[in-house]
Amino acid sequence: MSFRKAGGEWEPMLLGIEPRNCGVCGKGLYRNFTLLRGGWSRCTVCGQFVHYSCLSSGKTKFLKVRPRVCKTCRQNRDRPLPKEGGKLAVGS
Description:
Blueprint: H1 3-6, H2 31-34, E1 40-42, E2 49-51, H3 71-78
Antiparallel strand pairs: 1-2
């Protein structure tokens, strides 16, 4: 009788590898998905890893804006802020 058989059933000690998810589209940053599509980069505003295709575009579609900014941060930045001096429309 060997030591392995005497020990009974046991599960291997391998931990599952959880990939990071893109901050914009929510898909995993797998190498097989991103290898031929430009890879991934970190947004300079929010600091999340995003697919290269989820970065905001520059003058042309395939060139990206520098510094690297994701599409959600770009939309939040371009959204006009409400004026603080104006009165708010509140129903009475």
